[in-house]
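#onboarding

Welcome to the new folks! Below is a worked example of what a typical request in this channel looks like: someone posts a single protein sequence, and someone else replies with the predicted structure as tokens. Don't worry about understanding the tokens yet, we'll cover that in week two.

Example request:
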Amino acid sequence: QVQLVESGGGLVQAGDSLRLSCAISGETFSRYAVGWFRQAPGKEREFVAAITWTTSSGRIYPYYAESVKGRFTISRDNTEDTAYLQMNSLKPEDTAVYYCAADSLRGASSWSDLGYNYLKHLGQGTQVTVSS
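Example response:
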């Protein structure tokens, strides 16, 4: 059974940085696309970033929402079975609960259109609060 455990959320000031982690257990991590969604109070859950499973040639590709491009970086460490979301230049509008997701069938490039509910494995979420 696949389990996702997020960590790294917290309260920061605008302009600060945070790094979220998503540790995955129970399956071969490298075969899973991994990513993040977020949900702010009163808003729908939205795509943030995703990274592909590792191809046979060892390549991986990241995808980002326009609102975080240039500020957030998604990465993965297959030796640690963990994905990371480095968030820089945080803004108050980044305040949300951030959810990790993983799927071995739905490629990362499709996640922004598919949405959170279509993905197979979902985390419990970690709160990120950015004060102005």
